Amino acid sequence: MAHPTPLDRIRVGSAPDSWGVWFPDDPRQVPWDRFLDEVAGAGYDWIELGPYGYLPTDPARLTEEVARRNLKVSAGTVFTGMHRGPAVWEETWAHVSQVAALTGAMGARHLVVIPSFWRDDRTAEILEPPELTAEQWAHLTKGMERLGHEVRETYGLDIVVHPHADTHIDTEQHVERFLDSTDADLVGLCLDTGHYAYCGGDSVKLIETYGERIGYLHLKQVDPEILAGVVAGGVPFGPAVRRGVMCEPPSGVPELGPVLQAAQKLGVELFAIVEQDMYPCEPDVPLPIAVRTRRFLRSCGA
To answer: Can you give the residue ranges of the Xylose isomerase-like TIM barrel domain (predicted)?
Structure first.
């Protein structure tokens, strides 16, 4: 059997999301200390903070908890509605500041920025039109540039915007429009392979076309058969996850080996954080999947 090319520029990690964690506090989620124990036990070195407030928010306490498990933090995550214009800046910045301060204190350099959902991921209620107006696109792109500038100046972090199902940055068309309309120096991209496939995009093509914009990776796969039913039925993202649309690799798409090889060829160090959306899930489900996924990624050279 041929050995895979070593992916020496790819830093593999996992996230609370792979343990079914979507909210700061929810009785259906595993306790944070169990997540830390299990993610370390599964063989990962890097983690994300997950929803702000899930892991301890005191930097000294969190530093101690991750260090004694030989873990390091790669990024924090925020949700933003920049398309709503300057009126939401103060509220957005208050939340971003909390997360960015903790992220920086943990030695991480990235802040993953997810656009707000246009339909509720729990109730499926339509909150806004799925397409932005030209004015809203301008608000979105200018707002993200401002966020990128302020986060770097204040906290020394780089923002990476995460295309996501049921948000306004989702399909290939929307992602390319966003990238073409923003300053590469201020705004990077977090390519989530699962979300991009969910919305019809080709991750390898995106990496090869917009390589200089790729600042971060989330690794996940979708089940093509379940996705076909989701698309045909107009099923919202939350219920789609409960159907199992995001599946354990290597059983779904896209193939992660070619994605990782394309990322390696960029010649820069990149985090590749495993995220298998499965909220809610039974507490004993995530660990065996995490162990198998880590083994699979090693077989790809990562």
So the answer is: 36-280
